[in-house]
């Protein structure tokens, strides 16, 4: 079960109801003054290098010598990064709306073109790391994409924090890697705290997958 926060409140800023900032503030960060400098000016390049490492690791078949050398290098790097680890509320992830997928390496990188009560429109590219087989994206990665962007649509529509209650994905055709695809998510209706949402994923005019879900708006103080 995923949670689509309307943005984690930053320690230096006023806490909003439920401890999170409304999603509209995150989407329009440049307009409302939200600090998107967390992680510094090179955080995007840092995330891209991590993604590139994940892509290579997905298909790597190293010799034992290279494996041992890489293990040593990665251990040294992990030891360095230990000094930079912060709690989830202080991490740049979820607040860097200037970066693909808000700088979150657990998500396939996407760029939001529109986000309002009518829905969310985004462009997404599945990379080598997201490979399922035969140059196609893994179905689980497609579900992750839908879960995050459906949650965004639910949060924007409801104006509050939501959590996934159910998610159903129908795979209609092959979803290619290294191709910019279009995702659209929108709320069909809201009944009290229940927000019913739909989504489509297209490669040009071809429908790759579609989804429907139910998200629950959290009460104040719920997480």
Key words describing this protein structure:
223 residues, alpha+beta, Thiol Ester Dehydrase, Chain A, 5 helices
Structure description:
The chain is α+β, with helices and mostly antiparallel strands and 223 residues long. The protein has a single domain, classed as Thiol Ester Dehydrase, Chain A (Roll), CATH 3.10.129. Helices cover 29% and strands 28% of the residues. It is built from five helices and nine strands. The chain has helices spanning 23-27, 29-32, 43-59, 64-82, 139-158; strands at 3-4, 110-116, 119-124, 131-133, 136-137, 162-171, 181-191, 194-203, 206-217. Strand 2 (110-116) and strand 3 (119-124) form a beta hairpin. Residues 5-27 and 29-33 have low confidence and may be disordered.
CATH level-3 fold name: Thiol Ester Dehydrase, Chain A
> Could you estimate the helical fraction of the residues in percent?
25-40%
Overall mean pLDDT stands at: 87
Whole-Å distance between the termini?
A: 12 Å
**Shape assignment:** globular
How many helices in DSSP terms? 5
Strands in their spatial order, largest beta sheet: 1-6-9-8-7-3-2
Main beta sheet: 7 strands, antiparallel
Sequence stretches where pLDDT stays below 50 over 5 or more residues = 5-27, 29-33
* CATH architecture designation: Roll
Order of helices and strands: EHHHHEEEEHEEEE
* Classification by helices and strands: alpha+beta
The CATH class designation is Alpha Beta
Number of domains: 1
Total strands = 9
Give the name of the CATH superfamily.
Hotdog Thioesterase
- How much strand content do the residues show? 25-35%
Cα-atom radius of gyration: 18 Å
